[in-house]
């Protein structure tokens, strides 16, 4: 079984938001909502400061609190390790929205929880998620974290990296190269 994840090189990302626009277009995200966003974090103390640009979305956690709190089983992890929502089972109770520590979920105007799917419909065809496919600086990588020969595994084994909020134990599968 595969365990898919994403690696983002913060030294290459320029924060252009092409990934955000590609996501909205590929997934028909309603106006005013977003499955992904770009955040800028100031690091260090003056005069030794720098800005880290983080392209963020659902972290497709290995220990996803959104799945654990879902009362109907609508939120689940598929065979590829991707956290998804079955829109037909979702009752729009917002428990998953509240449980997600990354703010990655919202209630779609049609009444169900929505979020990044890693473009599961593209991954099933052997394609990269739309955000990865359009990145003009090639700072985003997608692949099987359990395959030692995958590009994502090689990058994580060769470069220092971090996740967002590692201390809360959700085991995110989006990694940021330093």
Fold and architecture overview:
The chain is α+β, with helices and mostly antiparallel strands. It has helices at 18-26, 65-69, 95-99, 120-123, 130-134, 151-158; strands at 4-9, 36-45, 48-57, 75-77, 83-85, 106-107, 113-114, 140-144, 161-162, 174-177. 20% of the residues lie in helices and 26% in strands. Strands 8-1-10-9 form a four-stranded mixed sheet. The protein has a two-stranded antiparallel ribbon with strand order 2-3. The chain has a two-stranded antiparallel ribbon with strand order 4-5. The two termini are 29 Å apart.
Q: What is the CA–CA distance across the termini?
A: 29 Å
Tell me roughly what share of residues is in helical segments. 10-25%
Strand content: 25-35%
Order of strands in the sheet with most strands:
8-1-10-9
- Please give the count of helices: 6
Radius of gyration, taken over Cα atoms and rounded to an integer in Å: 16 Å
Number of strands: 10
SSE succession: EHEEHEEHEEHHEHEE
Largest sheet: 4 strands, mixed
Low-confidence stretches: none
Rough shape? Answer: globular
Please state the structural category. Answer: alpha+beta
Q: How confident is the prediction overall: mean pLDDT?
A: 96
Brief sketch in words of this structure:
By secondary structure, the chain is α+β, with helices and mostly antiparallel strands. It is built from six helices and ten strands; from the N terminus they run E-H-E-E-H-E-E-H-E-E-H-H-E-H-E-E.
